[in-house]
């Protein structure tokens, strides 16, 4: 048995204390009665018995206030979803300002627009640079997803571009899903140069698990620059992106191996094509979070408690001849 509001017990205890004070009246002035000792003994015993009945009644009422209930099973809610992982490059080159305000912020804005249009789908987010990190496991919580997207930032995952391990992490996460349609959206502007698994090896793993990978190469300008930390005489300083342009050949190969599509987004509007493609996928019905079903018991405790309390009060009037 569980108690939904255990702290409400205090109200029942206060009621019991108040009732006890009316029954025994500790501040009542002493009075002298001349009666038969046997009658006096019976009266005291009767009063204690009546007090016990009332006490049990108040205990049951107090328990009823805590809303006792008994779990009797689970109710499963079913929803239709696609499972989609966004794998987002957060290397320093994503700060290039050939998009406004920069590549990363433009990508985040399009992810938010996509999420707002597909509230029924489960969205996961992985970000990567030298290392890969799961920022959000698959979730249908729209507000949580929006908050997490805002947390995608450059800076704490190293200096390289590890497409292979990031893609492999998304595949491992997606393989645990029960949805039929699983997709990975890979957003990057660089060339994979670190990691224990190559992008092609990760794509082969995705193909074996039936997960499509849509690749989006962000940026098209070979001479795009990223801002440096300081400024010179009030003007921003910039650095040409190390490593050059996007590895379009690898991105095409990843998409081809997995049955996805590859895109080059030279401006923020180009991201709409891949998102509309994913939007056309048929959704799969899965179990959402289960809800526990309860049998409510508070009414039983309340009714029995009230009956015992009324019996106690009636006995005080009729048997003890008390004036309430």
Category by helix and strand content: alpha/beta
Q: Summarize the amount of helix as a percent range.
A: 40-55%
Radius of gyration: 35 Å
Q: How do the strands line up in the largest sheet? A: 5-4-3-6-7-10
Order of helices and strands: EHHEEHEEHHEHEEEHEHEH
Describe this structure as you would to a colleague.
By secondary structure, this protein is of the alpha/beta class. The protein has two domains: 2-72 and 292-318, no CATH class; 83-282, Rossmann fold. The protein is 41% helix and 26% strand. It is built from nine helices and eleven strands. The strands form three sheets. It has a six-stranded mixed β-sheet, sandwiched between helices. Strands 1-2-11 form a three-stranded antiparallel β-sheet. A hairpin with a 3-residue loop joins strand 4 (122-128) and strand 5 (132-139). The longest helix has 29 residues, at 37-65.
Note the topology.
Layout: E1 2-3, H1 9-24, H2 37-65, E2 68-81, E3 83-89, H3 103-117, E4 122-128, E5 132-139, H4 142-149, H5 163-175, E6 182-188, H6 199-208, E7 211-218, E8 225-232, E9 235-240, H7 248-258, E10 262-265, H8 271-279, E11 284-296, H9 298-318
Helix pairs in contact: 1-2, 2-9, 3-4, 5-6, 6-7
Give a brief outline of the structure.
The protein is an alpha/beta fold. It has helices at 9-24, 37-65, 103-117, 142-149, 163-175, 199-208, 248-258, 271-279, 298-318, and strands spanning 2-3, 68-81, 83-89, 122-128, 132-139, 182-188, 211-218, 225-232, 235-240, 262-265, 284-296. It has a six-stranded mixed β-sheet with strand order 5-4-3-6-7-10, sandwiched between helices. A three-stranded antiparallel β-sheet has the order 1-2-11.
């Amino acid at each position: 048995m569980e108690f939904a509001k255990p702290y409400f017990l205090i109200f029942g205890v206060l009621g019991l204390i108040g009732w006890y004070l009316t029954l025994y009246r500790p501040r009542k002035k002493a009075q002298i009665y001349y009666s038969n000792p046997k009658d006096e003994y019976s009266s005291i015993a009767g009063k204690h018995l009546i007090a016990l009945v009332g006490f049990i009644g108040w205990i049951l009422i107090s328990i009823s206030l805590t809303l006792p209930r008994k779990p009797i099973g689970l109710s499963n809610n079913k929803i239709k979803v696609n499972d989609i992982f966004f794998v987002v490059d957060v290397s320093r080159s994503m700060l290039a300002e050939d998009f406004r305000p920069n590549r990363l912020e433009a990508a985040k804005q399009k992810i938010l627009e996509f999420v707002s249009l597909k509230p029924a789908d489960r969205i996961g987010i992985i970000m990567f640079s030298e290392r890969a990190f799961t920022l959000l496991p698959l979730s249908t919580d729209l507000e949580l997803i929006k908050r997490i997207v805002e947390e995608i930032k450059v800076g704490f995952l190293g200096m390289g571009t590890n497409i292979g391990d990031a893609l492999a992490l998304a595949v491992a996460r997606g393989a645990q899903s029960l949805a039929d349609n699983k997709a990975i959206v890979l957003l990057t502007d660089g060339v994979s140069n670190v990691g224990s698994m190559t992008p092609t090896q990760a794509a082969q793993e995705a193909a074996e698990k039936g997960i499509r990978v849509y690749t989006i190469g962000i940026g098209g300008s070979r001479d795009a620059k990223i801002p440096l930390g300081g400024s010179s005489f009030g003007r921003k300083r910039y650095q040409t992106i190390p490593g050059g342009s996007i590895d379009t050949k690898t991105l095409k190969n990843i998409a081809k191996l997995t049955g996805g599509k590859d895109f080059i987004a030279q401006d923020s509007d180009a991201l709409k094509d891949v998102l509309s493609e994913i939007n056309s996928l048929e959704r799969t019905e899965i179990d959402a979070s289960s809800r526990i079903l309860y049998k409510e018991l508070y009414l039983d405790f309340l009714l029995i408690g009230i009956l015992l309390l009324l019996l106690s009060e009636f006995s005080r009037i009729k048997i003890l001849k008390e004036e309430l």
